[in-house]
Design a protein that fits this description.
Elements lengths: L2 H21 L4 H15 L6 H26 L8 H19 L4 H22 L13 H18 L4 H10 L5 H24 L11 E2 L2 E2 H22 L4 H28 L1
Antiparallel strand pairs: 1-2
Helix pairs in contact: 1-2, 1-8, 1-9, 2-3, 3-8, 3-9, 4-6, 4-8, 5-10, 6-7, 6-8, 7-8
Length: 273
């Protein structure tokens, strides 16, 4: 791996780790595009890139979550009561997404990833203009299972940890204060990433020959992302306790908007060409 690309991985890990701890959204929305580019440059067969990129992203998320979990626990922002429903729904979502991901090649995957990023950017920008006060919400096993299913599906398909869906749903549907929604989502992400990795492991192609590839994991990318992601997960979790959530939503929305355009239009151009 070239030196400049290692620097990009380290910077991506730091930024994504901060955002993961800060908003409970995982880092895959930044990890996966960098991994896809790196795997294309390394010469991995096109049909295997999505699975390896997502699996590697999830491995980084899983290995770095402990740091932010400790900070959220210390700040009293983790609620264990919804986790059973979230876990049950998340397991089913992760399994279905893993089966679909096996059949997808790189260019259509980038189109879907870009579309997903654009959707979330617009949602975050729109949400940043609204009052975050929530007075009542729906709770219960089925409600939490539905939220978990959406989170597990997106976690396994896009390698994003599931937090992009679970955190806002806990906040807007189940009336969790934003800080507690972030902390509880971080707990769910630990399971979602593990379940998705287990599902992806069943789909891996052991016959592929690529330096640094082990099963469905690209080890150079993993070790380039992990150190800064691990350190900055805790930084973000501590910032979440004292930062205006509307401002964070707006900043993150503007950040991923061009990323979604780049991935979506780039994948469409390559697919059509």
């Amino acid at each position: 791996m070239e030196l400049w690309l290692i620097a990009v991985f380290v910077a991506t890990g730091a930024l994504a780790g901060t955002l993961a701890g800060l908003m409970g959204i995982g880092g895959g929305i930044l990890y996966v595009p960098v991994l896809v580019y790196s795997l294309e440059q390394a010469g991995l067969p096109d049909a295997q890139i999505p699975l390896v990129a997502v699996s590697t992203s999830l491995a980084v998320i899983l290995a770095s979550l402990g740091n932010s979990l400790a900070a959220h626990w210390k700040n009293g922002n983790i609620d264990f009561s919804p986790l059973l429903g979230l876990v049950l729904g998340g397991a089913l979502g992760a399994l279905l997404a893993s089966l679909a991901l096996k059949e997808l090649s790189a260019d259509p995957f980038k189109i879907l990833l870009g579309s997903f990023e654009l959707f979330m950017a617009l949602k975050l920008l729109k949400g940043s203009q609204k009052n975050d006060a929530v007075t009542q919400g729906r709770r219960g096993l089925l409600v939490f299972a539905g939220i978990g299913f959406a989170g597990g599906l997106l976690s396994a398909f896009f390698g994003v940890g599931g937090g992009l869906i679970v955190m806002p749903l806990l906040h807007f549907v189940s009336a969790y204060p934003i800080a507690k929604a972030v902390g509880t989502t971080t707990g769910f992400m630990l399971f979602a990433a593990a379940a998705a990795l287990g599902s992806h492991g069943l789909q891996a192609d052991p016959s592929t020959q690529l330096t640094g590839l082990w099963h469905a994991f690209y080890l150079p990318g993993f070790f380039a992302l992990l150190p800064s992601a691990f350190i900055f997960n805790r930084v973000g979790a501590n910032l979440a306790h004292r930062t205006d959530p509307k401002r964070l939503k707006r900043w993150f929305g503007w950040f991923i908007l061009p990323l979604g355009l780049l991935n979506g239009l780039g994948g469409l151009w390559a697919w059509l060409g």
